[in-house]
Amino acid sequence: MESKSYNPFNMAQAQFDKVAEMLDLEAGVRDLLREPMREYHFTIPVRMDDGAVRVFKGFRVQHNDARGPAKGGIRFHPLETIDMVRALSMWMTWKCSVVDIPLGGGKGGVVCDPHHLSAREQEQICRGWVRQIARNVGPVQDVPAPDVMTNSQHMLWMLDEYETIHNGRFPGFITGKPVGMGGSLGRTEATGYGLIYTLREALKEHEVDISRTSASVQGFGNVAQHAIRLYDHLGGKVVAIACWDQSDKTSYTFRKKGGIDLKELLDITDKFGGIDKNKARDSGYEVLPGDAWLEQ
Fold first, then answer.
1. What angle do CA 77, 81, 82 make, to 5 degrees?
2. Which alpha helices (H) appear in 82-134, and where do they start and end?
3. Cα distance between residue 83 and residue 128, in whole Å
4. Beta strand segments in the chain, E
5. How far is CA 133 from CA 32, 124, 178, 241, in A?
6. 169, pLDDT greater than 80
């Protein structure tokens, strides 16, 4: 998730230091805000489908709760690191504050690869994560949510475990639930749509007609798919998508200079956002190695 030359937490701190200098924040405030208030590291033992026991590493970082309960997603990724989680929790603090939402910043994660885990194994990881942190999260402390490679089903497993432990109904413990189980309409689309609404307003500021723009997109998961849908609806043209190929353990760029067909690609995409490169070629896409998407 990060190379030796790139540390996301160092970058987040550098961003904060730059702004703190501009605001002339006093030293004590700077020292408080550039570090997480709390972080939890724990292990999650899981009996796998083959009978063996594997131990997964889990995290929860609560960067700041001065404005309200910490808020932030839970990520499942084989290359997850504590520094990535720290950085994301810090950025969540700023995001909530900038738009005046009474929440703080948090983020969580588990070092695992859902590509190679059955539904039962993923459920055990979710329940194990909650068991380890149940006393330190909740509606008035810290509210988790879905993030990379987690979804509404994972949130339901976590909610059920939390309610079992605390012997009550606590739907406010976690967001990203299915609509019929207390979730919010529009939640699935929100991040991708928010990206494009922000882009639309920025283009207005620069007096650029969105219908005269083209874009390349990195990733093809939930956020990217909904962003592409709205961007296309507003008149933009996506010409390239870069995403990870699980079988080859590398990334590819799928390019069509006349514009990609979202429905066509969704029909050949797995649940993790991986596009079938052979079927893409058959549909007329150039399949290029790595980050050629940057050179549209």
1. 130
2. 82-98, 119-133
3. 22
4. 38-47, 53-64, 70-77, 104-111, 142-146, 214-218, 237-245, 250-255, 286-289
5. 23, 14, 23, 37
6. yes
The per-residue pLDDT for range 25-76, each reduced to its tens digit, is 999 999 999 999 999 999 999 999 999 999 999 999 999 999 999 999 999 9
* Predicted TM-score (pTM) above 0.85: yes
Distance separating alpha carbons of residues 122 and 124, to the nearest angstrom: 5
- Three-state DSSP at 118 gives coil
Give me the residue label for tokens 């005046």: 100
Minimal CA–CA distance to 56: which of 41, 47, 65, 46? 46
- Which residues are catalytic, by number? 107
Read off the pLDDT band of 294 (50, 70, 90).
low
Q: How far apart are the first and last CA of the chain?
A: 24
* Strand bridging mode 104-111 / 70-77: parallel
Q: Using H for helix, E for strand and C for coil, what is the string for 55-91?
A: EEEEEEEEEECCCCCEEEEEEEECCCCHHHHHHHHHH
Q: Mean pLDDT lowest for which of 30-39, 76-85, 266-275?
A: 266-275
The domain 8-184 belongs to what CATH superfamily?
Answer: Leucine Dehydrogenase, chain A, domain 1 (3.40.50.10860)
User: How large is the average pLDDT for residues 194-214?
Assistant: 97
Residue with tokens 């005269």: 212
Query: How many residues are listed for the chain in this entry?
Result: 296
Tell me how far apart the alpha carbons of residues 128 and 122 are, in angstroms, rounded to a whole number: 10
Per residue in 126-151, pLDDT (tens digit) is 999 999 999 999 999 999 999 999 99
Question: Domain ranges in the chain?
Answer: 8-184, 189-295
Class of domain 189-295: alpha beta
Asked if residue 123 lies in contact with residue 150, where contact means CB atoms within 8 angstroms, the answer is no
